[in-house]
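Posting this for the archive.
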Amino acid sequence: MESERLGECPLHGAGERPEYLVGRRLEQVVASWHRYGAEAPSGPLDVWLIDSEKVATHVTTGADWCLTVEVSAPSEGYDMAEWGHIEVAPISSGTPFADHLGETVLAVSEEGDPDTGRLALEITFGSGRVRCETWSGDLHLSSK
């Protein structure tokens, strides 16, 4: 199913059209997390979906709270001194995408605003769907 053409984010452009994911198998999920002392990690801040074609689809929020979808390799983690550190690592649990590892993407759909661009992306697998949204500038992932 092809998504309706969304408006472009004024800061980030239109980003990737995620239809290329349809028919590809989700092989690996990499995520970034903010870790601060002994506190539970917040996030994920970003996810990278590595598919059967070895393409890394990066899903995150933009500075203007749009949902950004682009093809890019996972970034490196980094230290922020007294503000903690960003950890980037492959995951097998901890996000709704982990439940769909090894499954093929059946469909994708997007929601957006003509003036601000993409606000949500939903990816459908045989066993369910994962919705990616931006909530007040934070990436929010949920299963359906």
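The CA atoms of residues 39 and 84 lie 10 Å apart. The mean pLDDT is 85.
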